[in-house]
Fold these 3 entries.
Entry 1:
Amino acid sequence: MARVSLVTTPRAGLTWLWLSGLVVLLDQASKLAVVSKLALHEAIPVTSFFSLVYWQNLGAAFSLFADQPGWQRGFFIFVALAAAFIILHLLRKTCGRTLFCVALALILGGALGNVIDRFAYGYVVDFLLFYWRDWFYPAFNVADSAITVGAGLLIVDSFRRERPIQPGAHDQ
């Protein structure tokens, strides 16, 4: 049985940009709160496995390339802005694929949230830290969470893809 999309206008995917904006707003507001309340490297334990911290990430995910002499700032800004343009193009061309559009909007909001940090500070503010005894997961933020959830939704969507209806297929 074929599903009929309620969203049929060109550029319908762009209606999801409100979600990207919400991610950027929540990301930047949470980072401002952390920077204004915590000293660099300060941690506030919340549970036995989670703390709020204030860390500055000069690198990418998991602090990849953080120890480099500075080239990574411009490189990561370029990559994020290129991804943003590609995502905007995909959203503009997408029609009726809600999960796909939500995933792209989350990734776009997360990428822009971290790009704002790189432009403003030269690093990304991370503040969510999960750990168990001596092991800890690298600190992250709302933007990173949105990117991760968006990537997961893209994977789910890739398994749900509908095949286009072939002309005459209903006649068989």
Entry 2:
Amino acid sequence: MIVKSGKFGKFLACSDYPNCKSTAPMTLGIACPTCKVGELAQRQSRFRKIFYSCNRYPDCKFALWDKPVLKSCPQCQFPILTEKLTKKQGLIHRCPQKECGYIEIIEAQAA
């Protein structure tokens, strides 16, 4: 398998192309928190917006818009946090669970 770049971002493809046509998405090395079998991969929507989802897509539909970080939430113990750069707060880590609401400011935005 070799790394190639296509219409929807980077992916792994078979090096012996005419004989082997298998492909796989590039993974981040973070286990999927819902199915615990697949890994999270960076993907690109048809509108070129980057999102992160499980590489076992039809079976597991877990997806995030913000970049996942392998750090568990101190409040609800969810296995991952998301990283986002905002204009108001700067770089933050946030729990993807809506009912948790945990936010940690990593780098404050200079005013």
Entry 3:
Amino acid sequence: MEKILKIGAIASGSGSNFEAIVLATKTGILKGKAKVEVLICNKPEKYCMIRAKNHDIPAFLIESGKQERTREDYDHKMIEILDKYCCELIVLVGYMRLVSKMFIDHFNGKVMNIHPALLPSNFIGMHAQEEALKYGVKVSGVTVHFVDAEIDHGPIIIQKCVPVYDTDTKETLSARILEWEHKAFPKAIELFCDNRLEVDGRIVRIDGEVKL
């Protein structure tokens, strides 16, 4: 029987990428390969918690900024939960904080993030779509990458170009990019499950062709 990869998810908002990954484990490309064991959210009253409840996935609220002395203090709390559920891959699904090097090292670098731009040539941080429109770029996109201690910086796994139209608003561009986020993140996890990823410094080598 094929081993099922245990995933821990961390979110700060609505959790649409969380939902896409969960659905992929139930009926899509991750079925029989991976399972989302737990969700952690750092903000109260966010819809990701409802999504988790709807899928019978344990969800924990650990509010950031609540008596934490250091980032490591907060990350230790997350590690305790993720270890309890034996998580082997951590996915940041709209998590709006940096994780510490201690956190990354604890999971042996097996932490993934998704960003709504083409890193590093596009825009890092929280307002990538808005900045893309202001700058007038003709192409934006999606990047799934392993996480390191710098913001939106780690080794790149998958990228997908998304056109930017003259008539775009932040909302229309965000929606178009999000459609590809929901495909790219599960695909990156599938590659991980299938042992098709080899990380060599900043380079992620993929065994075989990748189609989204």
